[in-house]
Amino acid sequence: MHKHRTSIEFPADLWDALKAHVPPRKRSAFIIDAVREKLMRESLRALILCGGPGIGMRPLTVSIPKPMMPVGYKPLLEHLILKLKKQGIYSFILAVGYLAEHLIRYFGDGSGLGVTIDYSIEEKSMGTGGAVKLAEKKLNSTFLTINGDIIFDDLNISRLVKYHREKDAVATMVLTRVDDASRFGLVSMDDDGRVIAFREKPRHPAPGLVNAGIYVFEPSIFEYIPAGKPASLEEEVFPDLADEGKLYAYVHNGYWVDVGEPEDYEKVVRDFFSGVLP
Q1: Per-position b or e across 190-212, b if 16+ CB within 10 A of its CB
Q2: Can you tell me the distance from the alpha carbon of 102 to that of 239, in angstroms, rounded to the nearest whole number?
């Protein structure tokens, strides 16, 4: 193995701040960790699933795709992209299908938001798994996958990815706790964080941990998704990964809403204007 030596030049004020806050014996490790995290963030791509028809939000989604529904002064999807950008993620792929031209026309190449945006276009509905598979050629390292109709806050992406790598997982699923899991179904995990079971939607309102629609995937995820036909992450891919012990869970305790029904949309809009949602 060939080792390469390099040097980093710090501005004087930054070096003074580093010396003031980090003991000498820890400075090398601190700098290495900081550089590693910066490289990880800049190389991490986010695949956002935006292709669904938004049936639960009809008639609002007859003329616009659900991710383009306005929250305050920006589309729902723009809020999501900007939140990820604040955490150092600048490269996005939008998996689009239903009314795709609305998203492409609005976001373009992403330069207006200070990010880069590429597109993976479904000619027909492929489901969540099929949409991920279609983007395979654009993804060759660890990547995020996020449903385009959710909004969340206070999720540390760096910690999520670090956890995923420590577990040597093929996939890590973010879970969130809700008061009523009857719309989602429940997810069970063991003491090590490994997902061990998916439980049917409760017949009556019940609290529990549910799939938040936020994932970290290794490229090996593509081996679990059939090519050229619709597939579901939730119903086909994840159960197979869980059976093999390669699916882990990461619990998020912050703000989260899945905009699946009109009352969810109303909540997000209220939270935005009341300052609950930054």
Answers
A1: eeebbbeebeeebeeeeebbbbb
A2: 34
8 A C-beta contact, residue 146 and residue 48 = yes
> Do β-strands 116-121 and 91-96 pair in parallel, antiparallel, or remain unpaired?
parallel
Rounded to 5 degrees, φ, ψ at 49 are: -85, 110
Count of alpha carbons within 13 angstroms of residue 77, beta-carbon side = 28
pLDDT in tens, 43-73: 699 999 999 988 888 888 899 999 999 999 8
The yes or no reply on domain 44-274 and CATH 3.90.550.10 is yes
Among 11, 100, 75, 91, which Cα is nearest to 43's? 91
Other C-beta atoms closer than 10 Å to the C-beta of 274 total 8
Extents of the domains making up the chain: 11-43, 44-274
Question: In whole angstroms, what is the distance from residue 217 CA to residue 141 CA?
Answer: 9
What is the rounded CA–CA span in Å between residue 17 and residue 151? 35
Structure-block tokens of residue 227 = 């090519």
Q: What is the pTM for the complete model shown?
A: 0.84
Active-site residue (options: 26, 38, 86, 201): 201
**Whole-number Cα distances in Å, 123 to 32, 47, 126, 127, 237:** 44, 18, 9, 12, 22
Cα 76 to Cα 65, 179, 181, distances in angstroms: 10, 23, 23
Residue 29 in 3-state DSSP? helix
Task: Decide if 201 is catalytic.
Answer: yes
Gap between the Cα atoms of 68 and 116, Å rounded: 18
